Amino acid sequence: MIQSINHVTYSVSDIKTSITFYKDILKANILVESDKTAYFTVGDLWLALNEEKDIPRNEIQYSYTHTAFSIEESEFDEWYQWLKDNNVNILEGRNRDIRDKQSIYFTDPDGHKLELHTGTLQDRLNYYKEEKPHMKFYEQDDEDEGDNVSK
């Protein structure tokens, strides 16, 4: 049985630039670095960077694929201003209902989409149950079987 995410790795074009971004802008705790690799912790998440200079990177801007980090609702404005003050590329977010909480979408130096989000999975599920009757929800039991549809 899969227990959780073990780590997230991003391919980066310049390890030094990316180390600065994750350490100084996202305030990640750096654990080790070399001329091609760096490891951080962000909360309980192990985040790895690996430098790969000669790969295409343009297509990433068209994808909704992203990593979201949790922040407190009370810190939302402070984080937004911090990113803005540090000239981070802040993306236009999607329109959202207040029950879906708040998010800031932005990119790292290589265009990986990141999000700071004030909501939880339960917030999202509760909102969707109220507003999206076309969706099929599954009940989770203690065994985490996950194949029972809610009624």
UniProtKB/TrEMBL annotation:
<dbReference type="InterPro" id="IPR004360">
    <property type="entry name" value="Glyas_Fos-R_dOase_dom"/>
</dbReference>
<dbReference type="InterPro" id="IPR037523">
    <property type="entry name" value="VOC_core"/>
</dbReference>
<keyword id="KW-0046">Antibiotic resistance</keyword>
<comment type="similarity">
    <text>Belongs to the fosfomycin resistance protein family. FosB subfamily.</text>
</comment>
<keyword id="KW-0479">Metal-binding</keyword>
<dbReference type="InterPro" id="IPR051332">
    <property type="entry name" value="Fosfomycin_Res_Enzymes"/>
</dbReference>
<feature type="binding site">
    <location>
        <position position="115"/>
    </location>
    <ligand>
        <name>Mg(2+)</name>
    </ligand>
</feature>
<dbReference type="GO" id="GO:0046677">
    <property type="term" value="P:response to antibiotic"/>
</dbReference>
<dbReference type="InterPro" id="IPR022858">
    <property type="entry name" value="Metallothiol_Trafse_FosB"/>
</dbReference>
<dbReference type="Pfam" id="PF00903">
    <property type="entry name" value="Glyoxalase"/>
</dbReference>
<feature type="binding site">
    <location>
        <position position="7"/>
    </location>
    <ligand>
        <name>Mg(2+)</name>
    </ligand>
</feature>
<keyword id="KW-0963">Cytoplasm</keyword>
<comment type="subunit">
    <text>Homodimer.</text>
</comment>
<keyword id="KW-0808">Transferase</keyword>
<dbReference type="GO" id="GO:0016765">
    <property type="term" value="F:transferase activity, transferring alkyl or aryl (other than methyl) groups"/>
</dbReference>
<dbReference type="GO" id="GO:0005737">
    <property type="term" value="C:cytoplasm"/>
</dbReference>
<dbReference type="InterPro" id="IPR029068">
    <property type="entry name" value="Glyas_Bleomycin-R_OHBP_Dase"/>
</dbReference>
<feature type="binding site">
    <location>
        <position position="66"/>
    </location>
    <ligand>
        <name>Mg(2+)</name>
    </ligand>
</feature>
<feature type="domain" description="VOC">
    <location>
        <begin position="4"/>
        <end position="119"/>
    </location>
</feature>
<keyword id="KW-0460">Magnesium</keyword>
<comment type="function">
    <text>Metallothiol transferase which confers resistance to fosfomycin by catalyzing the addition of a thiol cofactor to fosfomycin. L-cysteine is probably the physiological thiol donor.</text>
</comment>
<protein>
    <recommendedName>
        <fullName>Metallothiol transferase FosB</fullName>
        <ecNumber>2.5.1.-</ecNumber>
    </recommendedName>
</protein>
<dbReference type="GO" id="GO:0000287">
    <property type="term" value="F:magnesium ion binding"/>
</dbReference>
